[in-house]
Amino acid sequence: MFKTTLNKGIFIPSILFILLVSLVSVLYPEMADKILNLIKNFIFVNFNWVYVWAVTCFVIFLIYLMFSKYGKIRLGDNDSRPEHSFFSWVAMLFSAGMGIGLMYFGVAEPMQHYTAEVFGLEHYVNRAKNAQLYTFFHWGIHAWAIYGLVGLALSYFAYRLKLPLSLRSCFYPLLKNKTDGAWGNLIDVFALCSTFFGITTTLGFGVVQINSGLQILNIVPDTNFLYQIMIVGVLISLAIISALTGVDKGIKILSKINVMMVAGLLLFVLLLGPTVFLIGSFTEGLGNYINNFFNLTFATHAYDPAELPWFYDWTILYWAWWISWSPYVGLFIAKISKGRTIREFVVAVLLLPSLFNFIWMTVFGNSAIWFDVNVGNGALSALAGDPDALMFRFLEYLPFSTVASFMTILIVIIFFVTSADSGIFVMNNIATKNAVKSPKWQTILWGSLLAVLSLLLLNAGGLKALQSMTLITALPFSVILILFIISLVKALTIDQEYYDRSFSKATVPWSGRLWKERLKQIVATKDRASIDHFVNTVVKEAFTELQVEFADNNILASLNQQSNPAKMELEIKYDQINNFVYGVETTAKKVSHFLVDEDNLPEVQEKGAFYPKAYFGDTRESYDVQYFTKNELISDVLKHYDRFLDIVSEERNEMFIRTDSNEKAG
Length: 666
Description:
It contains 24 helices and 5 strands. By secondary structure, the chain is mainly α. Keywords: Cell membrane, Membrane, Transmembrane, Transmembrane helix, Transport.
C-alpha cells in the first residue's frame, strides 16, 4: 500500500503554486521577470518603511526579552534540557542560516559598496569604512533578529505549549482552534512556497559559483549547463542522503565539519593577508557599527533622494530576503533548540553568528580592498560586478592560492548540501504537519523537485523572476511576523503568571506542633522501601479519604496506583479542559559524596536516596512531600484543587487548560 504523511490541505495547493510560478518563469522568463520586478520595485519604493519598522520591532523585542523576566523561561518543560551540545547547535543554525551567502558575498559585497558612487569615489577612507559598516549592518543583528523571532516563536509554542512545530501554532493565542482549519493551512502553504522559492534561487546561484570556481581551477573547461547539471545531480544526491539520516547524524556532522573548515579558511586569510590592518580595521569597524547602530536601524534616506536607489537595492532587498527565508531557517532553528532558555536562545542567535559574520566580512572584504589599493591597482574593483568569480580571483593574491580555492569550493559544496538537506527536512516537516516519521520517498521527492526546478530556471534564465517572487512574499510575511510578536507577548505574560500563581491566602502554613516527629523523619534513612511504604500508606489513605469526600460532593475522583516505582494518583476527569491531577511517586536522587562521608549522617547510603515527589499533570515543578502527615497531604491536594478551579474559570488561560495542551509532542 502506498504510504504518505503528506497533508493534502497543505501539499496540494503548495505544489500547484510552486509548479505554476516555476513554469511561468521557465517558459516566459523575460515577461515574468519584468512583471514581478515591477511589483517588487513598487513595494520597495512605496512600502520600504514597512520593512524598516518591522525589522526594528524584531530587534527591540528580542533585546527586551534578553533582559526581561521572561528570559528564564525554558523552551520546553521546566526540567527539559538541550538535545544538542552548544557547539553543534550553533554550527547547525549558522550553516542553515547564511552559509552559501557568506562565501558568495564575503568579498563581493564589501567590494561593491566600496565601488558604489553613492559613497563618493574620491574618498578612499570613507568608501572603505562605509563598505564595512553597511556590510556589518546587512549581515548582523538585524538579519539574525528576523531568523531569531521566527525560531523563538516556533520553539516556544511547540515545546512549551505542546503545539505542532508549525507556523500556524504561532497564532494560537490569537486564533485559538481556528489554527487547525483553513487559516492554519493557508499559513503553512505560504511558508512552504516561500521556503521552496528561497532555497531554489539560492542553490541556483550557488551552483554558478561552484562552476565558476571549478573553471578558474581548470577542473572544468567552462560554465556550460551540462557541468551545472552534473554539479546539481551530485550535490542534491548528497543532500538527500544527509536528510534521510536525520538531524542528529548527517546534518549535524556536515555542519560541524563545515564550521571547522570555515574557521580554517578564515585563519588562513587572516594570517597570510594584511593581518595588522585587518585586526585594526575590525576593531574600528565594530566601534563604528555600535556608534551608528540606531541611525542605521531607523534610516530611510528620505532626505537624500540620490541614495534611495542604493537603499532599495541593498538594505530593503536584504530585509525582504531575510524575511522571505525566515520560515525555513526559523523552522530549522526551532527544531534544534528544544530545552534552551529564552535568554540563552536570544543571546546565541543574535550575537554569536553576527560576531562571526563581522569577522568574516572584515577578513575577506577588507583584505580584498587592501589588495586592490596596494597590490592590484584596481583589478579587484573592476570585478565587483562578477561575484561568481570574485572570491577566487581574490585568493590569487595569497600564497597557496590553489589550495585555498579548492578549500573554498569544498566549503561551498558542503554549505550547498547542508542548506539543501535542512531545506528538504523543513519542507517535509511543513507539508506533513510535523509528522514524526515519513516515508523515504518524500525526502527524495523534495530533493528531486529542488534539483529539477533549479536547473530549469537556471537554464531558462528564470532565477531572477523567482527571486523577485520570493522578495514580494516578504511584505505580507513581515506583517505576519509582527503578529508573532503579539502572540508571544500574550502567551509569555500568561505563562509567567500561570507559574507564579500563589496558593490561596486562606491556606495555613505548617506549625511547629509536630517538630519532634519531623526531626526523626529528616534524619531517617531515605531508602526506596521506606518511601514506597509512605506512598502505599499515608498517601493512599489521604487520597482514599479525599475520594470519598469528593463523591459526597457529587465529584467523581479516581485513584490510579502502580508499583515499581510506587505511585499513587488522584484524578478528576473533565471533557473540555485538562483533568485535575495530583500524584505522588517514589523518585530517586543522587547524594553528594560529602554527605555520604559525613559522620553526623551515618545512615545516608552511597547508592543514593529516594523521596516521594508530588506532580500535578502539567509542567509545573514538582516537590518533596515526605514530611506531610495524612491531613497535611489532604490539605495540599485541596490547595491545588482550589488553584485549579480559580485558573480554569479565567478565559485568558484557555491555551493552558484545553484538553490537548499537556500532550507530549511527537
